[in-house]
Amino acid sequence: MTRSLRHLNSLRAFEAAARHSSLAKAASELNVSHSVVSQHVRNLETWFGTALFVRHGNRVELSETGRALRPQIASGLQTLTDACEAILRKSQAGTLVVSAEPALASLWLRKQITRFQTAFPRIEVDLRPAWSPDRIDDGQVDMIIHFATRMQASGVERSDLFPIDGYPAATPQVRHGVQSAQGDVDWAKAELVHDNGKETWQKWFAAHEPDCDTWRKGRVYSDLSLTIAAAVDGEGVILADDILCAQDLASGRLTRLDDRAIRCVWYQVAVPRGAARKAASETFRDWLLEQTTELRE
To answer: Going by C-beta distance under 8 Å and a sequence separation of 6 or more, which residues neighbour residue 134?
Structure first.
């Protein structure tokens, strides 16, 4: 037993790589480098004396031995996870102060916190929307969830939460005014709604309509929540996404105009490094990352 548990981290790396068919995606999930995951897998293969994966460039495929091992390792890790979470739900307590980008806070994170506190009722999460995130090292917050471009670079442990992929969307009325009978959008007629500058729409036009300069037009709002609200009110076309705009798209308040999308931004979650981090912060961070695994793939 002692010899087997010595390889527990390697077994976690193997299970993640097997699930994703990718060492890089496993590294992202485990918040380590690609080389660390590769070394863990090599250590296991040396220990077992057989290959666990067949390599195809950046993609990996389970060998026959790997296929036999994976379900048992996955089951064992889930048993360990369930056992630890059962204790944490009863024992961990306290208040976490979370600083989050306002649109994310109101349109997605609030609901996740409600679900988390149902599972961990002794942990209270104090959600504080902030366009400019506080610095973790000043002791005012325990966690930051914000655009990757606005995260502090030092003193924190950062993890990718999910990306925002934007595509044109508008109200049915606005869509009727800019769309031809064939379904094409006349971009010369379109009024755009911008979030914190015109760079994102400029990026979309550069990728998909390089000869059109419509991106120069339209209202600019400093907050993504205001941008979404303006689009719902019929002010123009927005670069919507399937996460923050999910309710407006499902209800029909917004409708997709064009299938072409661009990667707008990544959201990240950051906690203090080392001893400065609360145990409850790590629990909440890991829970969020587990809930969003599919969004990162």
So the answer is: 99, 128, 140, 141, 144
Q: How many helices (H) and strands (E) does the chain have?
A: 12, 11
Contact 20, 297 (CB under 8 A): yes
Give the model's pLDDT for residue 91. 61
Is the whole model's pTM more than 0.90, yes or no?
A: no
Beta strand 262-272 with 193-195: parallel, antiparallel or unpaired? unpaired
Per DSSP, 135 falls in state: P
Alpha helices (H) in the chain, listed in sequence order: 2-5, 8-20, 23-30, 34-48, 64-91, 102-104, 110-119, 172-178, 199-208, 224-232, 246-251, 279-291
Q: What is the pLDDT of residues 130-158, one digit of tens each?
A: 988 878 877 789 999 999 999 988 889 99
* Inter-residue contact 164 to 295 (CB < 8 Å): no
Residues 25-52: tens digit of each pLDDT: 888 888 788 889 889 989 998 998 999 9
- Residue type at 179 in one-letter notation: Q
Cβ neighbours of residue 123 under 8 Å, at least 6 residues apart?
Answer: 92, 93, 94, 95, 96, 116, 117, 280, 283, 284
Identify the DSSP state of 234: T
